[in-house]
Hints:
One of its GO terms (molecular function) is metal ion binding. The protein is an alpha+beta fold. The protein has 17 helices and twelve strands. The strands form two sheets. Strands 1-2-6-3-5-4 form a six-stranded mixed sheet, with helices on both faces. The longest helix is centred in the first third of the chain and has 20 residues, at about 135-155.
Amino acid sequence: MTELATMDFHPQPQPGEARPWAFPAPERGTLGNGLTVLRCHRPGQQVVAVEVLLDAPLDAEPAGLDGVATIMARAFSEGTDKHSAEEFAAELERAGATLDAHADHPGVRLSLEVPASRLAKGLGLLSDALRAPAFAESEVERLVRNRLDEIPHELANPSRRAAKELSKELFPATSRMSRPRQGTEETVEKIDAGAVRAFYDRHVRPATATVVVVGDLTGTDLDALLDDTLGAWTGTPGEPRPVPPVTADDTGRVVIVDRPGAVQTQLLIGRIGPDRHDRVWPAQVLGTYCLGGTLTSRLDRVLREEKGYTYGVRSFGQVLRSAPDGTGASMLAISGSVDTPNTGPALEDLWKVLRTLAEEGLTDAERDVAVQNLVGVAPLKYETAAAVASTLADQVEQHLPDDFQATLYRQLAATGTVEATAAVVNAFPVDRLVTVLVGDAARIKAPVEALGIGEVTVVAAE
């Protein structure tokens, strides 16, 4: 009788002991030229992320030149005193680096990603762009033309058109927040190299700027690198600039941007709320996520799964401008799209969700899932140096302490169902929401008026 062959198995791998995770804390410093430096050593992150924040907010743009901050941001990579636009692009490519920039209400940000082995080269190019941008007339003219070409496409995009209309409705006409961030056709076409240079000279200086460096800094003398590169950037000391308070009118009303023949209606419902300095922020984040943060949230369960009106509806809070003195604000909004015939029924059910939330509250199960999704996946969210650098830059931009994000995750985990319910109900009161609908007014106006959620106005799509 033959013996059965035996097999030896390798021992089954056992899980290691779970290690606590917290959002990384940066080290702070200051260069001789006044530039604030935040650094964060992340072993293994061989692509280093660098963020530069410039105190050049949109409300500092000269009257009639909305968009000049955006053109300036784009022009930083279009040549310096050492390289033409083509040469600068080639130098970035040789370093394996990317350089992006954009302007928003708090200011202008430049984002550099470069291999750790070529960090010196990348910082040198970044320094040249900030220290001595060329702002050549031909390059600025090209950027202006490109921006003018973008505007019709944005107006044709239903979600972008809805956002433009909501800002116009919420904020007074005198507020920069009421107008498109990147300017309008009327304002952008007035921008030239002289206007860009004047905005740069007035607002861009190291004394009011911050640089964030995140990545594997093993064997790197970052102090010496920064002194040799960004340390060569000079400028006058900054002067305090008055910051206007954020005001808005969230009287319940509906604006329909008419798109005859549209088969879908884009909806954007919003108002302003507190920024991240407010103690309600963690509960508001949690409650808003329960309302419409993911596929399993209430809005999607009703409007998508039960009724089939939409592919998805989301609720969110987006900081517009943050300030410790209470003058900051965030945009609280619900967005999505529904098919045209069901626009009225979808809005009716959406309002029912909000009313039910106020009457019955969230469930413990909803709260638990939200905490798991927001807090549990945080280590994955911040695997890259760029993600960490961007969040650290957000904290600087919003005048928050360096441990804000780490503290926020602890607060989210400790927030109860009752707190989250109260915060989201206060964030989205059914009678204080401005509703923008981009769709076929002839088909959706009457059903929407019948809902009684506010006076209905129709405007042309442009």
